[in-house]
Amino acid sequence: MTSSASPDIHQLLDQSKRNTENVIKAAPLGICITDPHGYFEMVNPAYCDFYGYAEEELLGQHFTMLVPDANRETLHDLHDSFIEGEERHELRQEWEVIGKGGKTHTIIAEAARIIGFDGQPRKVTFIVDITQRKRLEQRLQKANERLHYLAHHDELTGLLNRRAGLQRLEQELSRSSRYGSPLSVSMFDLDNFKAINDTYGHGVGDNILQEVTAKVNETLRETDIQIRLGGEEFLVIMPEVDAENARQAMERVRSAVAETTFTQRALTVTLSAGVAGYVEASTTRLLDHADKAMYQAKQSGRNRVVVASSM
Ligand SMILES: Nc1nc2c(ncn2[C@@H]2O[C@H](COP(=O)(O)OP(=O)(O)OP(=O)(O)O)[C@@H](O)[C@H]2O)c(=O)[nH]1
Questions:
Q1: What EC number(s) has UniProt assigned to this enzyme (predicted)?
Q2: Number of C-alpha atoms within 13 angstroms, CB side, residue 150?
Q3: 27, 20, 118: which is closest to 12 by C-alpha?
Q4: Which DSSP string do the residues of 236-305 spell out, in sequence order?
Q5: Is pLDDT above 80 for 132?
Q6: Ligand 1, atom 3: nearest CA belongs to which residue?
Q7: Going by CA atoms, what residue is nearest to atom 26 of ligand 1?
Q8: Among residues 172, 153, 190, 160, which one has the least CA distance to residue 286?
């Protein structure tokens, strides 16, 4: 090995510099350098492509031109404090940004502080586009929320379904027994609903179920909870309400429903309700009492409210 055979160190340094430049140009992630005041000093092709601007449209501009109005001040301040600070790296963060033409994207940005040719600090920012991933995440989140909703609600009426409703009753019962506060439930069922379905069809029956649900909710208190147990059978949980007041509330519900006409056909429908006040911490017993009272309401002519304790 002779020194004359190896390339000159200056040549090597020059090659290394050019290689570095080429690597930055070829990098699949967007890279930019901003001066101490936040103006673009370098943008690589991936950065330009991502935002849809030509290099000359970005150089000399303030980086906040790519930031939505709402975040502009925050990011401006972050840039300044990073430049002035001691940290050499800025942690990865997710941001909303705006490309040419106003298109918004989500990026992950990570930054490093370097010292420029003039001895002043510069910020190098590396960005990765995660717009697609973000959209997918949002879609998944929506789908999960929908699944969660469907698992707990009845689709036709939007009420809590049987399973979620009974869980809620358990919670309300244990709260009642802990604080010794009253609690009542009412089970109600629409009268002769089969005849409505048979005469007007299932679709009309469905509409009536929806409209009756709305009427009942409108008549009850905000704190009362209406549940669809199944078919045309419902349950109302009335926290902090004793049996007599629950009877009065259900009497109001009964008459409101009986006096209303439903659907465009102006149909009438009545309900029979059983009311039971909380006696002991057992969901089954409470429901059993309310069910028996409802049965009695049906037996004694329908369109009425019967209280279990009065049986
Ligand atoms: N449209 C519609 N009908 C339903 C739904 N769920 C249950 N039903 C109907 O509700 C009717 C209930 O009938 P029954 O149990 O015989 O009671 P009923 O005719 O209301 O008579 P009583 O309860 O004794 O007053 C049946 O025709 C069911 O098909 C539903 O989601 N939509």
A1: 2.7.7.65
A2: 6
A3: 20
A4: EEEET--HHHHHHHHHHHHHHHHT--BTTTTB---EEEEEEE--SS-HHHHHHHHHHHHHHHHHTTSS-E
A5: yes
A6: 205
A7: 194
A8: 172
Alpha-carbon Rg for the chain in angstroms: 35
What confidence tens digit (pLDDT) does each residue in 242-260 have?
Answer: 999 999 999 999 999 999 9
What pLDDT, on the 0 to 100 scale, is given for residue 280? 65
Contact predicate 174/286, CB 8 Å: no
Least confident of 103-107, 203-207, 306-310: 306-310
Q: Tell the residue nearest (CA) to atom 15 of ligand 1.
A: 194
Sheet holding 271-277, edge to edge: 225-230, 233-239, 183-190, 271-277, 305-307
**How far is the C-alpha of 249 from the C-alpha of 187, rounded, in Å?**
13
Q: Annotated catalytic sites, by residue? A: 232
Distance CA 153, CA 157 (A): 8
pLDDT tens by residue, 70-80: 999 999 999 99
CB of 233 shorter than 6 A to ligand 1: no
Token pair for 75 = 């990011």
Which domains does the chain show, CATH number per domain?
9-134 (3.30.450.20), 158-310 (3.30.70.270)
- Residue 239 CA to ligand 1 center (angstroms) comes to 28
- 232: CA distance to ligand 1 center in Å? 5
Q: Are 125 and 76 in contact (CB under 8 A)?
A: no
29 to 23, 95, 102, 107: CA distances (angstroms): 11, 15, 21, 11
